[in-house]
Amino acid sequence: MRWLFQSVPKRYDLAKEMEQGATETWLVTRFIDEIKKGDTVFFWMAGPPDVRGLYGWGKVIGEKPEYESGWGYGIDVKYVRKFPRHIPFIDVKSISSFSDFVLFKTAIGTNFRLSDSQTRDLIDLISQRFGKDAAP
Question: What H or E segment, with its residue span, contains residue 16?
């Protein structure tokens, strides 16, 4: 499976805090029984137009989401690639497979499932911007 995990700048600023090669525990609010080790995750930051967009991708390294008291479910991920600059929201939204993407209609949530076509389109966009080595 492929996922898009969303942060908000006030809680976790991907531009400042995401480090390629580092591991992090991400909140899992949906798809608790579906997210698993080896899944690819694209990292998205919400916020104003100048920061909203795609910042990189990684892999789920935890076996499955684990419950942590007072916090909720979390899963360990590894940041495989942080982009030299983010891919703006408008560039992703202009892709036809994202025209009805739930995140762009209701920006509430942390975890979003990506279809095969959305995944291919993101890989193509990343490859065009940063080269094939930058894409999963």
Answer: helix 14-17
The tens-digit pLDDT sequence of the chain (136 residues) is 999 999 999 999 999 999 999 999 999 999 999 999 999 999 999 999 999 999 999 999 999 999 998 889 999 999 999 999 999 999 999 999 998 898 888 767 799 999 999 999 999 999 999 999 999 9
- How many Cβ atoms sit within 10 Å of the Cβ of residue 9? 16
Q: Would you list the domain boundaries of the chain?
A: 2-131
Q: Are strands 40-45 and 111-113 parallel, antiparallel or unpaired?
A: unpaired
Give, in degrees to the nearest 5, the angle at Cα 114 between 86 and 108: 70
pTM: 0.95
d(CA 83, CA 129): 9
User: Topology of domain 2-131, per CATH?
Assistant: ph1033 like fold (3.10.590)
Q: The dihedral of CA 119, 6, 101, 51: what is its sign?
A: negative
CA triple 34-121-21, angle to 5 deg? 65
